[in-house]
Amino acid sequence: MTKTEESSQVTVLGLGTMGSAIAKAFLNHGYRTMVWNRTASKADALVEAGARTAATAADAAAASPLVVVCVLDGGAVEDVLSSVGTAVEGKVLVNVTSGSAGQARGNERWANERGAEYLDGKIMGDPPDVGTGNIMFPFSGSRNAYEAHESALKSLGGIAYHGEDAGVAAVEFMAQVALSYELLIGYLHVLELVRAEGIDVVDFAGRAAGTVAMLPPLLQSMGAAVKSGNYRPDLGSLDVQAALMDDMISHRESLGVEAVRMREVKELMDRRIAGGHGGQGFSSLFELVTKP
Questions:
Q1: Residues 136-169: tens digit of each pLDDT
Q2: Beta-strand pair 157-161/66-69
Q3: ∠66-152-140 over CA atoms, to 5°?
Q4: Inter-residue contact 178 to 158 (CB < 8 Å)
Q5: From 2.60.40.420, 1.10.1040.10, 1.10.8.60, 3.80.30.30, which CATH number describes the 229-292 domain?
Q6: Around Cβ 183, how many Cβ atoms within 10 Å?
């Protein structure tokens, strides 16, 4: 195999819905793609599309300089790596399976001990979006590995490198997903509030989308405030916001709508005000959420 042929070869281990989409994206971008899955029949459609398949994970890993692992969870990653063993020597191992920062750092140690470089990646999007601009893959770990294979990784969609600590991509992923869930569960309760008042939820959703679109500057200013400790009165002073919270809580409870989070926010505001910080803004509550 020539150097050019070798650099255009990639292996994908794991052919679930996401792994198959990743392999297909590599194929679509002209990469000679080797695939492997514990259930061999899952490779059939990809082989028809031009991929090659190997009998074992070790054989598949040995075939390419870039080896991508995409399986169900951390336990499945351990099983795959155990079967791959020293076949990764001299390779770049990229794991895009969801998992913790600690698992990523452990995988990096495993790879380095076997002579491989390691990148940890996470997937922020759905299988149909792989290969498009509607998905993001944060990566962290070996900078040399990232730079050497950046072009291939771009075949998967939007990518970003977060540094040489292999665990940082997992932190980015967990934080971004957590933000979405925190926002969306609150949104569902807001929709219940709106519906309880007889307002059309679809009409309201359109207006809510406009409100959310105005949040980026506030999120950035709150991040800066937390870093500096200079808490300006974002959203107004806590003295004013606390009074508004009383109204919001009573409104929800009068309609039988859940108000647990509103009460938690009010309690934090009251504590901050009692500590002499009523002139500060919402971001100053950070000082309490970090101090149980």
A1: 999 999 999 999 999 999 999 999 999 999 999 9
A2: unpaired
A3: 70
A4: no
A5: 1.10.1040.10
A6: 11
Tokens of 61: 């890993």
pTM of the model: 0.88
Superfamily in which the 3-171 domain is placed by CATH: NAD(P)-binding Rossmann-like Domain (3.40.50.720)
List Cα–Cα distances, 157 to 28, 190, 226, in angstroms: 12, 33, 32
pLDDT tens digits, 235-271: 999 999 999 999 999 999 999 999 999 999 999 999 9
Domain boundaries, the chain: 3-171, 229-292
Backbone angles phi, psi at 119, to 5 degrees: -125, 135
d(CA 11, CA 13): 7
Q: Residue 177 corresponds to which amino acid?
A: V
Q: How far apart are the first and last CA of the chain?
A: 60
Burial 98-133 (b: 16+ CB within 10 A, else e): bbebebbbbbbebbeebebbbbbbbbbbebebbbee
Nearest partner of 35 among 43, 25, 27, judged by Cα: 43
- Helix-strand-coil split of the chain, %, nearest 5: 60, 15, 25
Q: Structure tokens of 152?
A: 């291939």
Q: Which of 8, 13, 130 is nearest to 70 (CA)?
A: 13
* CA 102 remoteness from chain centre: 15
The alpha-carbon radius of gyration of the chain (Å, integer) is 24
Question: Phi-psi category of 199—alpha, beta or left, where left has phi over 0 and alpha has psi -120 to 50?
Answer: beta
Identical fold between 3-171 and 229-292: no
